[in-house]
Amino acid sequence: MNRTFTSLLTDHPAAAVVSATVIAALAAAGLVRGLGPLAAAVAALTAAAYTCAAMTAWRSALRRKRLGEAARRAADAVAALAADLAAGTDPDRAAAAVEADWPPEATATTRRLTAAWRVAAALGAPTAELCRRLAEHLREDERAAARTRAQTASIRATATLLTVLPVGGIALGEALGVEAIGFLLATGPGIACLAAAMALQAAGIAWTRALTASIASEVA
């Protein structure tokens, strides 16, 4: 089931996000229908917002993973191409062999390899050496990406924890008999608190993304 939905999110992201958002909104409204129509409407909107954000983040993570895998495969292909050219393989045959398994998502590597190939053809530079150097640069890009992930792992983990922590607070309030859900969904002050919390969470996520982006630029 998870694999099927992952495939749907990858191939048809809009349909997957809309479907999950509608289902979550209807489920949330049904769970709190005893608190009144206002609570049901607020619960539906809240569930829709969080589900849409979560699905969008999941899709972005899948896309990053897919692009990373494509970049690794492209780097391997460039290294293999350099080895074939250095061994004396006909350039056209070597290029055709690489093209057969080339990942279509590796657009940046495609542009760099095409540029190297054109430089070699225009200036008579050794194609094998240019491909070898390109493969080295691609490997360094992979290492830089790995360093970025390692340096930002704690930041992303903290952001995730702070995002889901309010759920624990609400559950604790319900366990103590405070009726936190009813307060947040069916009263004016509660709805204001809920809206402020969601706005602060969105600001925190935006700040986290800016911070990780700045670290990525420094590492690169």
Task: Give a written overview of the molecule.
Helix 1 crosses helix 2, helix 5 packs antiparallel against helix 6 and helix 6 packs antiparallel against helix 8. This protein has one domain. The chain is an all-alpha fold. It contains eight helices and no strands. The two termini are 38 Å apart.
Describe the structure using short key phrases.
single chain, 220 residues, mainly alpha
The radius of gyration computed from the alpha-carbon positions, rounded to a whole number of angstroms, is 25 Å
Number of domains: 1
Task: Write the H/E string, N to C.
Answer: HHHHHHHH
Query: Which band does the percent of strand residues land in?
Result: under 5%
Low-confidence stretches: none
Short description:
This protein is mainly α. The protein has eight helices and no strands.
Outline the fold blueprint.
Elements lengths: L1 H10 L1 H19 L5 H50 L4 H10 L6 H17 L3 H49 L4 H7 L1 H32 L1
Helix pairs in contact: 1-2, 2-3, 3-4, 3-6, 3-7, 5-6, 6-8, 7-8
